[in-house]
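Here is one such tokenized protein:
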Amino acid sequence: MHPEQTRLLRAAAGRVPGPRTPGRTRRWTPRGPLDLGLTLGPLRRGPGDPAFRVGADRAVYRASRTPEGPGTLRVARPSGGEIEAEAWGPGAEWLLDRLPALLGDADDPGAFTARHRVVHEAQRRNPGLRLTRTGLVLESLIPAILEQKVTADEAYRSWRVLLWRFGEPAPGPGEELRMRVMPDARGWAMIPSWEWHRANVDGKRSAAAVRAARAAARMEQATALAPADALARLQAVPGIGPWTAAETLQRSNGDPDAITVGDLHLPHTVGYALTGAHRSDDAAMLELLEPYAGQRHRAARLILLTGRRPPRRAPRMAPGNIVPL
């Protein structure tokens, strides 16, 4: 556990939580099947993400930095029908206004036609899959940058350390749940180089994150752009390539076609699921997914849900460590 997290938890240990202040609420009924876990799961950056929690009652909590300020959102579906949402903080109204988009109401699964048996079966087994749309670019862009060229565990640890050191406690039940809201754009840009180093983020990734933060206003405008223009807008920042841009727009814009290229595992998984080939590259993956043009990200999500992956023939990628021992 990071020292700063330890300090905060020790400070909180002597306090008895008071009654929770009621937040603003909203009820909403989705059109058609909706699986909260499948829909919101991509927003979670590892099991210890300080900005994402799942309660004992299976309610999902998210801490976000909205244009109106920090906010905590709780989303639950106790009866399997109506969605019950509650939000706290200056960003509460913003989060509740965009609840349907977050839960995939703007997504159109009906536009997708399965072209392979395994994809059809995955679609049949997961009717509640919806593509989320957060409407927040930096929230997904910074962690995507952290995930460049490192293992997922390394990136998740860096995200946790940075949020605990430079974020702020989430409003409402956030303190009780030990949640953190990420820094604002200026906060990201002001993190000193040695603090990135302490979080095990190399200079190339930290420089890209700082450049993105300094261009935050233009980055956030990507939510209103057409898919090709949104990709171009993000990639105009040095250090943000097709992989990072796609990973971001899948979440911020709910782009059903933003296929991830340059990934270490995805081409092999897609190739194995659709053809049985143990090794594939981006070109082969894109050729296989051509029948899903306009829906390639959704097709990849469904393929991943099949669980069909090529047998491992090499050791896992070893974590790096840029912090001197």
